[in-house]
Amino acid sequence: MKKIGDQRYRGEIGRYYEDFEIGDVYEHRPGRTITEADNINFSLMTMNLHPMHCDSAYAAKSEFGKPLVNSGLTLAIVLGMTVPEVSGKAIANLGWKDISLVAPVFPGDTVYAESEVLEKRDSKSRPNAGIVTVRTTGRKACGTVFMRFDRTALIQKRAGNIDEAAGY
Known about the structure:
This protein is of the alpha+beta class.
């Protein structure tokens, strides 16, 4: 919370570039229980008609014995969970790399995420920003790691930030 007056505060999202320290780990909360409806709606909305995501009879005959959550959905949820701590003050996402899907996720699983700061440096082209790279890990409530990826973002510095200009 940012103090904006006597006994008055405004909620904030994200960290400024200066707030990131290499080696820091952010545990993102709350977790998210993924429902069957989430999985089917996301799969159909994104035109992913693979029967492992939306046909329980088909999935029952697979090695998993039940539907799998669409990996695009798990990536979107885990990425979204990181916004308050990692990219809430981002000017732009610069890229994702090394996305690894290491265990299946099923409807009914609750997922959590954490991000470790790997690198940070001042931007060469934007004096009001720096570049931060984090490694995010997705875990099920039981502790099983199901996903990892690295993400790089251009993050505002405190001086001359757009939050101030926009009245945030």
